[in-house]
Protein: PRA1 family protein
Organism: Triplophysa rosa
Amino acid sequence: MAGMAIAPLRPWEDFFPSVDRFSKPDVSDLSKWNNRVISNLLYYQTNYFAAAIVVCLIVGVLNPLGMFLGGAVVALVFMGSVWAGENQTMIKNFKRKNPTLFVVAVMGISYFLLSLCGGVMVFLFGITFPMLLILIHASLRLRTMKNKLENKIEVVGLKKTPMGVIMDLLDQQEEKVNKIQDFLESKLKD
């Protein structure tokens, strides 16, 4: 992972500012909402990872074997889905056309496998709950100019972060890259 940069931990005042920096997303414009979520995931990624680790540690202390099993199952399903998405044409096409549904399918498969092992509660509280909290914050937090600038640097490829790699594996940034390429091509033609 040469060239990988860890995004800085954002201060609490930036991560959770006053109420006026939060707004309900426009659910009628899914593209705009998706861009907000992706931008916030990239910008606040270290804060999100830290929050997820805290929740996982709490659940891990309460049920260490279940948390280990849950983490292993989710990691294996995620790695298997990424491999299948790269090597199986049908899955690759599905992943490109329906990236959000693909992520939901990965979580559904993980849930099913853990239900066979009796680890559903660990899955819900140790894995799904932190993801839900992150999604809620990323959906409601308005972007700042610094946020938008940092994301442009990530998308163009000048900087690579762990969340950027995860987003690439899930094909969540492809639209943004295409939009930037179209914009640059149109400017070069002018």
Observations:
- The CA atoms of residues 95 and 102 lie 6 Å apart.
